[in-house]
């Protein structure tokens, strides 16, 4: 038993050594978007050039079913999953398929790409690690229900939640489970990471703050309604929406409420935080900008249907999709529409912007590249 414990400890130490450069790697990612919301804090802000004027659809890639998943980009490859059960790797310039990996269920989980590995979950109750260059499976972890959350990495450990009500920390190199944390019900929200703390929501209406090393619960904040949306952490504040139709700002260290904003509809969209504003979509058919310090509304942009897509911000422009089938580009300062592009069906996928191109998926089964 002692020998086995020593071996496990040695493997874990090796994993920590191999992945100890994560903090540097994420900063060096530059204009790449290798994870959901662009960074571990999930602020939805991307560096580089935006698309102030719509020119054309550069390319679109057709799958066999709806795309809920939000794409991620690393090393000139865009990765995304579909309801057809595949994870795809596509050349970012041409839209040409490089490889596809088949799971036993839908892929709603937005991929995380790190150190040559793609991490994602599936509706077949598995969480996968796949070689980013070849699509070869490296390892998988079986859970007791769907894995729709988008993973984060902290100090060599992959963090994700499952509909089985459990939040997991797994060694990224070998798939060894480090710890698990049980919530009362479904853990649907993806984690946000800031320093040593992990933040995520649950269908029990609670936002949790955990110590990333020990899994110790630091605090919890209850809204009274299910939390689907991923929180965003910026300058010591956690911003998140809830099914109670409110957007919250909570002290990241103590869990004390700073303010709450009544959005008029449930919030399943993850907020983007940049400058003095927080941007979030709502089921009242709108994109809303709120002052990050006071919680007062700055402007409200009306779409033709529910906004579940999480907005991203690049160079003063907010990009967001709607159930009305349009992707919108909105001036971040004024809330004025700059342009829109129509797809063949609803958009729940959250866009990412890399190198002056907007990438997003649609229920029409296509991944779009728009410039």
General description of the model:
- This protein has 371 residues and is mainly β.
- It has helices spanning 2-18, 22-28, and strands at residues 57-62, 72-74, 77-81, 86-91, 97-102, 112-114, 117-121, 126-131, 137-142, 152-154, 157-161, 166-171, 177-182, 192-194, 197-201, 206-211, 217-222, 232-234, 237-241, 246-251, 257-262, 272-274, 277-282, 286-291, 297-302, 312-314, 317-321, 326-331, 337-342, 352-354, 357-361, 366-370.
- It has a single domain, classed as Methylamine Dehydrogenase, Chain H.
- Helix content is 6%, strand content 43%.
- The strands form 8 sheets. The protein has a 4-stranded antiparallel sheet with strand order 1-32-31-30, with no helix packed on it.
- β31 and β32 form a beta hairpin.
Features:
371 residues; mainly beta; Methylamine Dehydrogenase, Chain H; 32 strands
Question: Which helices and strands, and how do they pair?
Answer:
Blueprint lengths: L1 H17 L3 H7 L28 E6 L9 E3 L2 E5 L4 E6 L5 E6 L9 E3 L2 E5 L4 E6 L5 E6 L9 E3 L2 E5 L4 E6 L5 E6 L9 E3 L2 E5 L4 E6 L5 E6 L9 E3 L2 E5 L4 E6 L5 E6 L9 E3 L2 E6 L3 E6 L5 E6 L9 E3 L2 E5 L4 E6 L5 E6 L9 E3 L2 E5 L4 E5 L1
Antiparallel strand pairs: 1-32, 2-3, 3-4, 4-5, 6-7, 7-8, 8-9, 10-11, 11-12, 12-13, 14-15, 15-16, 16-17, 18-19, 19-20, 20-21, 22-23, 23-24, 24-25, 26-27, 27-28, 28-29, 30-31, 31-32
């Amino acid at each position: 038993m002692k020998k086995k414990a020593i071996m496990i400890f040695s493997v874990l130490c090796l994993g920590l050594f191999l992945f100890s450069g994560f903090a540097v790697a994420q900063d060096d990612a530059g204009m790449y978007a290798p994870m959901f919301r662009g960074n571990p804090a999930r602020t939805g802000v991307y560096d580089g050039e935006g698309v102030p004027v719509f020119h054309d659809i550069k390319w679109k890639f057709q799958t066999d079913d709806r795309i809920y998943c939000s794409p991620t980009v690393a090393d000139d490859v865009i990765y995304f999953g579909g309801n057809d059960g595949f994870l795809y790797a596509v050349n970012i310039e041409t839209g040409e398929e490089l490889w596809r990996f088949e799971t036993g269920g839908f892929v709603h989980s937005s991929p995380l790409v790190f150190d040559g590995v793609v991490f994602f979950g599936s509706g077949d109750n598995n969480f996968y690690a796949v070689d980013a260059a070849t699509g070869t499976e490296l390892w998988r972890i079986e859970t007791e229900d769907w894995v729709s959350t988008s993973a984060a990495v902290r100090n060599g450990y992959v963090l994700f939640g499952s509909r089985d009500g459990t939040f997991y920390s797994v060694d990224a190199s070998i798939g060894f489970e480090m710890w698990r944390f049980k919530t009362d019900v479904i853990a649907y929200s993806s984690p946000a990471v800031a320093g040593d703390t992990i933040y995520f929501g649950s269908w029990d209406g609670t936002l949790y703050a955990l110590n990333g090393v020990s899994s110790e619960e630091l605090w919890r904040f209850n809204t009274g309604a299910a939390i689907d949306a991923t929180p965003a952490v910026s300058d010591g504040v956690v911003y998140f929406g809830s099914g109670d139709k409110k957007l919250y700002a909570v002290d990241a260290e103590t869990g004390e409420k700073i303010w709450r904003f009544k959005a008029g509809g449930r919030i399943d969209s993850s907020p983007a935080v940049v400058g003095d504003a927080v941007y979030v979509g709502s089921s009242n058919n709108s994109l809303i900008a709120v002052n990050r310090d006071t919680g007062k509304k700055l402007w409200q942009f009306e779409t033709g249907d529910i906004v579940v897509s999480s907005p991203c911000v690049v160079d003063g422009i907010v990009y967001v999709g709607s159930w009305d089938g349009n992707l919108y580009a909105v001036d971040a300062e004024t809330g004025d529409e700059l342009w829109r592009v129509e797809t063949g069906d609803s958009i729940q996928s959250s866009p990412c912007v890399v190198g002056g191109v907007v990438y997003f998926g649609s229920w029409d089964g296509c991944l779009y590249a728009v410039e």
